[in-house]
Amino acid sequence: MLEQENNRYHARFSRLMAFDVPRQTLRYVGLKQGIVGDDVIHVDRAGRYFLLSVRRDQTASPEVWRVSLDQGEGAEPERVQEKTRGVDRWWADNAGVVRLGMRFSEYGSARIWYRSGPGEPFRRITRVSAGSDAWSYWREPSFRAGSDLGYVMASGDGGRRVLREIDYRTGELGRVVYEHAEWDLDRAVYDASGRLLGVVYTDDEPRTHWFDGELRALQQRLQQVLPGSNVRMIDLAGTDRMLVRQSGPADPGGLYVFTPGEGRLDLVGNIRPQIDIRHLAPSSAHSFTARDGTEIRAYLTLPRGSGRERLPLIVMPHGGPFGVRDALVYSDWVQLLANRGYAVLQPNFRGSSGRGEAFEALGAGQIGGAMQDDLDDAMDWAVEAGFADPARVCLVGASYGGYAALWGVIRNPERYRCAASYSGVTDWEDMLRHDRRFLHRSTYSQWRERVRGEEDFDEDAISPARQVRRLSRPVFLAQGRHDKVVPLRQFTLMVDAAKDAGVALETLVLDDTHHLEDPENEAEFLSALLDFLHRHNPAD
Hints:
By secondary structure, this protein is an alpha+beta fold. The longest helix is centred in the C-terminal third of the chain and has 18 residues, at 519-536. It has an eight-stranded mixed beta sheet with strand order 23-24-26-25-27-28-29-30, sandwiched between helices. It is 21% helix and 34% strand. Residues 1-6 have low confidence and may be disordered.
């Protein structure tokens, strides 16, 4: 991303570059365009060209150009799809034919145009609303050259995401191709020709169910060669060669090139070579029953070499809260805390994704309520199982997890010694006003309904900034100055309310965003977090 500044505006923009590996050279391969210059919608399998969707300026509809990757003379771009009124985005099939266009409205809906092949006119097929089931699968269409049949992730009869056929000529769904008995499917896997190869889902860790028998056999071979870790084939050149990722909760992992015909597995590189995995701690999956009978899945990481009983505990709720979940995957934050002597517990409280619509729906209207109960019940489980010392428990989280940390220590100070939040929500009424300005109407309506539920909902009663006078435990409050998701105002509301109530907070503001993109800023935050925990909930 580059930045351009003149007397009228200051904006970030992108340009597309190509890197020639043998020559070790970098060159510009786009064409004159507006702010966004890297919307590639197709790459030729032989590497001769790619299709680039281009807006000449911010208000223009996009065109599609065929851009040659040939180094020779006369390789001029060729326009293959003119701009069409009402189309904001284009999709192409595996042969490089533009097949589908979509128009997004300010109200959060989309109109869709489709054609079966080259030379045919585009026809308007349907209109879908943001947040609907159809919205999720129309935004990621998958079709093959010469066919109107594709596959989408849609809700099944059991309320879980399943793989179904779709007829793109009519927009009608067909038969269920694959569903898992317990878990939502994440995505489908295709080869370069668009042929369906498998589906990815996450139970406690990401897994792939291969429809192709040869790929199933290769997956088993890889699991035998790299035992005790999660092994995924993440990019395929048929069954001749593939890119493989190996990782685990106690291993950032590595990338390999697997050449089955030669029996070769060549290491490309370790993902985090600076980390000595001998210092990383193992994680395990557990289930417990919440107070209302709901089964909750959680992941526990125990520090190495410190026993397994009565440890200082960090309860770490994830963000979201809806449509997000934790899994047995590597986490810098979890491993850092475990390395410093803390047991870390990550509960997938009600409202988390992965277990179908019914489990997510249990979280509606339960922010600060039953969702928070699940965190308290997770702590009780860890104590009763002998892992945690009930007198040494803190909450740590970011985004919604930051809110849950703040609210937990205000709501139940008898349980928690302290709380730490990065970019956590502190005032729900103000947060909903912010969201209303930035979300499409239908998206905002659904988000507001999830937060508030169907019954009367008092935002003030579960907002840390409104209830800060009740705070009696140490709190570390950190925030990204340029956060657009949970804005800086949420931080200042909490700080000002605490000052008015005579309540002390430890604070940190960083020149960063919601996701702590700058490694130096993240290091500063984590260093301050460790210092805070050492003073208020020291490990052994």
